[in-house]
Amino acid sequence: MGGRGEEKEAEGVMATDFFWSYTDEPHASRRRQILSQYPQIKDLFGPDPWAFLKVSVAVSLQLWTATFLHNAGWLKILAIAYFFGSFLNHNLFLAIHELSHNLAFSTPVYNRWLGIFANLPIGVPMSVTFQKYHLEHHRFQGVDGIDMDIPSRTEAHLVTNVVSKSVWVIFQLFFYALRPLFLKPKPPGYWEFINLFVQIALDAAVVYFWGWKSFAYLILSTFVGGGMHPMAGHFISEHYVFKPDQETYSYYGPLNLMTWCVGYHNEHHDFPRISGSKLYKVKEIAPEYYEGLESYKSWSQVIYMYIMDRAVGPFSRMKRKATKSE
């Protein structure tokens, strides 16, 4: 499929370039093959009717928790943020991922409004901007200069050992969010400003009525939930190459119940029009397409492997050159 000096990786030495593929991304061709053999999978396309309720419960519970902690000590706030709030805010981040594919309502604008609502406890406006870049990640997976899911060369050259990889994991949400703004900035549009103003209004209301500790709880929940945290393992597990010639990996563990089944990542890229709640059915209908692929059962283990494996780092991603049409 490609190469980058695999002999270095075999010796346990981190490579100095990405994996380069000279074929198209694998999901479009596999989707055509599966649909030709199992056309009934098209019946799974469409929104999740429970999405609005699930988002509403998570948002309400997290905002209530923030108000409950308005006079709490900082140690208590940090503990609850890590062991409770982080799970809710990461759940909402993945709800926004689901909504970026219009999988709550058939009408796209309703999904956009629900995404802005799901964004509220996260504390920082990102829902609308995320959709712009994420859809490019699906359409141009691995394409150099377009897919902003892939680390920059600067990141890759700086993150080269256990210590720097640990720091990178802790702050990976910042890299994930800021990378496209530096490498491929897009001018903000009407909806970005709506997202921004709604978020600022919520943040200001939290500070005004309940104080800075309540707001800090929300921000801490976002930060720790996107760092050295079991749920954040999906950032690494989805596309970091641990097995040569495979660029997308699924996770079949219990945390799928809290993450909109984003662990079914091969299935998701094959069929982005199927909601997370139904992705398991794809594997049930067409098992022969997935059972031979490398997969994971623990996101925590993935984080550990990423940090401790001397041959794995930000360069462990599959890239491909852009074509003229791109």
TrEMBL record:
Matching InterPro entries: DES1/DES2, FA_desaturase_dom, Sphingolipid_d4-desaturase_N
Organism whose genome encodes this protein: Carya illinoinensis
Reactions accelerated catalytically: an N-acylsphinganine + 2 Fe(II)-[cytochrome b5] + O2 + 2 H(+) = an N-acylsphing-4-enine + 2 Fe(III)-[cytochrome b5] + 2 H2O
Keywords annotated in UniProt: Endoplasmic reticulum, Lipid metabolism, Membrane, Oxidoreductase, Transmembrane, Transmembrane helix
Residue ranges annotated for the Sphingolipid delta4-desaturase N-terminal domain, each copy included: 13-51
Biological role stated in the UniProt entry: Sphingolipid-delta-4-desaturase required for the biosynthesis of delta-4-unsaturated sphingolipids and derivatives.
CDD domains for the chain: Delta4-sphingolipid-FADS-like
GO MF term (any one): sphingolipid delta-4 desaturase activity
Family: Belongs to the fatty acid desaturase type 1 family. DEGS subfamily.
Membrane found in the keyword field: yes
Stored Pfam families: FA_desaturase, Lipid_DES
Coiled coil: none
Transmembrane segments: 77-96, 158-178, 190-210
Biological process annotations from GO: ceramide biosynthetic process
Protein name listed in UniProt: Sphingolipid delta(4)-desaturase DES1-like
EC number of the protein: 1.14.19.17
Topology in membrane: Multi-pass membrane protein
One cellular component term from this protein's GO annotations in UniProt: endoplasmic reticulum membrane
